[in-house]
Write a structure and sequence with these properties.
The protein is of the alpha+beta class. It has seven helices and ten strands. Strands 1, 2, 3, 4, 5, 6, 9 and 10 form an eight-stranded antiparallel β-sheet that branches. A two-stranded antiparallel ribbon has the order 7-8. It binds flavin mononucleotide.
Length: 208
């Protein structure tokens, strides 16, 4: 009987250890420096379909420092050329906590993911980091870019930006009923009009 118990005990230990080594093997990128995970590419080579990437798959906007950062989901935005510079734009309701980080650091990243991370992308849009634990309960891995911006290791595309202009929309400047309704709704919620954020692209990184 004692022998059987000993054999069972050893079998359980072996099973537990093999589980551990499998888990370690799964993350082949653990500990790798940022530049070994991502390749720096020129903004002009971005041939991605921005309507799908931003409008259908959604993106994460992250701002802050290694010690303190915040992330939100966004479905409005894009990129192009502004004042001769490759630039991005996004539209944020005035009460987004992420805006406070963007104002403080003057930088932010846009990150894009393959479909397998859909639930994680949506996770950051379900609650505000101001009054929830969303920054502790996600399953992504934060990484710091060589410029010191925060992004996520699981991203397939990272766009680093530096604010060019952060401005408040004016209701009289809108001409379509749809846009007017969005702006009105945003004001009713935040008691302040939406913010337009234009950012100079400082780096584009693609997963290697
Ligand atoms: C799919 C999706 C797209 C969103 N797009 C935007 C957007 O473009 N602009 C915006 O201000 N909020 C957008 N949101 C809402 C924010 O992600 C949400 O309010 C979030 O909690 C804000 O987080 P924060 O307060 O921590 O910054 C979106 C949410 C989802 C789920």
């Amino acid at each position: 009987m004692k022998k059987i118990i000993t054999i069972l005990f050893v079998a359980v230990l072996l099973a537990a250890n093999s589980g551990q080594s499998n888990a370690q093997e799964l993350d082949k990128t653990a500990g790798k420096p940022f530049v070994e995970l991502f390749e720096n590419v020129a903004p002009a080579t971005m041939a991605d379909n921005v309507f799908k990437l931003v409008g259908e798959d959604f993106m994460l906007i992250t701002s802050g420092t290694e010690a303190d950062f915040n992330t939100m989901t966004a479905g409005w935005g894009g990129w192009g050329v502004l004042f001769n510079t490759p630039a991005t734009w996004c539209v944020l309701r005035a009460n987004r906590y992420t805006l406070e980080y963007i104002r403080n650091t003057k930088t932010y990243t846009l990150t894009f993911f393959e479909d397998e991370y859909n639930d994680q992308v949506l996770h950051f849009g379900m609650a505000s980091g101001r009054n929830s634990d969303k920054m502790k309960t996600h399953r992504l891995t934060a990484v710091t870019t060589p410029l010191g911006n925060i992004a996520y290791k699981e991203a397939s595309l990272i766009v680093e930006c530096e604010i060019i202009q952060l401005t408040t929309v004016q209701p009289d400047d809108f001409y379509t009923d749809e846009a007017k309704a969005f702006i009105k709704e945003g004001y009713a919620d935040a008691k302040e009009y939406h913010k337009l954020v234009f950012g100079k692209i400082t780096n584009v990184w693609r997963k290697k």
